[in-house]
Amino acid sequence: MTREQQRDPGADGAAPDAYPTNGLDDTVHQRHRLGILTIAAEVERVEVAYLRDALELTAGNLSRHVSVLEEADLVEVEKGYHGRRPRTWIRITEAGRRALHAELDALQELLRRHRQAGAAH
Fold it and tell me: Where are the domains of the chain?
């Protein structure tokens, strides 16, 4: 990118490259859902109570975010028992992993461009 393009993007009449924020997925990008997916990607499955505490959410709020992710096929919900106590676990799906990686790639590109622009000034 020339200095002129940095000062006045679009001055040369060229179409802009897709901006990295265009790659962000609203379903994934919401901070609590991003947290759920990130934690779930680190383990085989994660207990809902752990997510609630780690992300500082109410049970109802967490339930709503998990429902959005489940409807998008990004996580699976597994219900069962640990001893006599009922438990609910979340497992990230393959589609969830791909969506999380795409989100992180878009954020990395956004950060790279921001740092590059900052270094030029």
Answer: 21-115
Q: Which residues contact 66 (CB under 8 A, 6 or more apart)?
A: 36, 48, 51, 75, 77, 90
- Topology (CATH level 3) of domain 21-115: Arc Repressor Mutant, subunit A (1.10.10)
Q: Tens digits of per-residue pLDDT, 29-60? A: 999 999 999 999 999 999 999 999 999 999 99
pTM: 0.81
CB 36 within 8 A of CB 55: yes
- What DSSP element (H or E) covers 76? strand 75-82
8 A C-beta contact, residue 5 and residue 11: yes
Is 106 in contact with 26 (CB distance < 8 Å)? no
